[in-house]
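call fold target=PAS domain-containing protein
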Amino acid sequence: MSQNSEMLQMHWLMDMVQSVDVGIVVLDRECKIHVWNDFMESHSGLLANTVKNQTLFAVNNDIDKEWFIQKTKPVFDLKVRTFITWEQRPYLFKFPNYRPITGTEDFMYQNVVISALTSATGAVDYISVMIYDTTDKAIAKKQLEALQVHMTENALPVR
């Protein structure tokens, strides 16, 4: 592959990372931010050039540092993915609901996948944190559970 082809491929890969409808944050071992895509800019109101090289905890003081470090340790050390579901923790980043008319929640529910980014030498110096908006699923599940409780409470007695 020519150097020009590699540059073109790198360009469209970066364009894809920026435009995908998933939050992507790349962190180093000190949890300093290296990538903050358009999804993150759009929902947080913070520009990538503002957050770059800051720690995740400086940008989002709602994240418990010790808890997050524990979540990332197996990713860095063992190259395994870790997951955070909205049922465990409703969100990693408390983004406002961006559907103010149709949305019934104040914030975005999220599933998070933390993955190792392995270098050419096999080392893991960076991880990716991918944030998926699961608000619709969370609302549907909460409504179903509320309906089940209502049905149980109002069930006719068995004769």
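return ok
The helical segments are 3-19, 38-44, 48-51, 56-59, 65-78, 135-153. The chain is about 40% helix and 20% strand.
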